[in-house]
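Hi F.,

I've been meaning to write this up properly since the lab meeting, where we talked about keeping a consistent format for the predictions we share between groups. The idea is simple: the sequence comes first, exactly as it goes in, then the structure tokens exactly as they come out, then a line or two of notes. No screenshots and no reformatting. I'm using this chain as the first example so we have something concrete to point to.
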Amino acid sequence: MTELRLDPRAVIADLDELASNSGGRFAGAKRLAWTPQWVEARSWLSSKLADIGLEPERDEAGNLWARIDGAEEGFMIVGSHIDAVPDGGWLDGALGLMTALETVRQLARAGARPPIGVRFVDWADEEGARFGRSLLGSSACAGTLDPDEVRDLRDARGVALADALAECGVDLDRAPAAAERLRGAVAYLELHIEQGPVLLDGGRLACAVSGTVGVERHLMTFAGQAAHAGSTPMALRQDSLAAAARAALEIRQSAINHYGLGTVGRMQSVPGVITAVAGSTEMQLDQRHLDPDELAAMFAEAREACRSAAEEFNCTVEERDVFRAAPTPFDRALVELARAGVREAGGGAGEPIPSGPLHDATEIGRVVPTAMIFAQSDPPISHASIEDSGEQALGVAIDAYGRTVDSVLARAAK
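Output, unedited:
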């Protein structure tokens, strides 16, 4: 088998074609999971796979797969996700997926069987943007998805997660059966933009990733009493929104104190009109930290902040778990291969960095040896239409990814 070398120009061309079909490069992506736009983007992806002679197939959790068989048993997985947050960037998820597409394209062109199989995957609903439950498809494969915990999650319009999946032909109760897809996997490799400032500030174009942080994600529902805004004295109000706002500020300070991350991404109040005190308010809470003990302390403080604020404003508060993930260190040997690939591609020899954002690698890394490569983000902003990376950084990261795949295959051939 000849050395695997990817063509960054082909990857960028695919990225531009995808962007033009779903919003435009800087106009904001329109690929929210479990929507017609997402289904259409996947249809485009399936045609791309068919063009290189691969037959895509969908597993029980809605993940899209294609395969190249190897000379020996076992396989490595290459992929990422095509879904996007509303009006998100052109590279988030898509860069890794189009690079994985170029990987199987080059392997198919080579003709000869690789030492082990290579399987391409587009994970379903990595972002969790519609229902708040990230990594849905990859967690089903990793065995950490409990359908009963998520079936009644609802989007902003009140649509239940289970119903949205059913409209796309996915039975939530059968989703855990997708775990069978990982049987025989020896490695998973993912490429992604950093989505932050570390590489840009350090003058690095790409790097290996050491692992992903832990996450606690919850819905905190404050219940008070709806009342007329003009006739209810301030001291007698049971204002659920005021309670949630007070808690949110304390949660922010807690994250600062613990050198972690705490985000209240949305508050939704009922009745939600300008002339009424909010009778109930649902708060979406996301907390992240590399240290599991620090993360646990942050969540304990968030609970206390919500309880205290509810008491102050004569309300009650209930919590519901949405998602949690322990810190996931990646496989040391694979990380070293990725680090060598970055160095050989011209990205320098710097240390791996951890990832604050979650990725499908977080879930797959629990059960399959996993590594990631980051491309520099410039500007260092993601989940926004201005998201971008320079052509040089993209070229280095794509090249490094191909070299790392090549190293995994070469190691399997020994």
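Notes:
The longest strand covers residues 214-223.
The mean pLDDT is 96.

If this format works for you, I'll send the rest the same way.

G.
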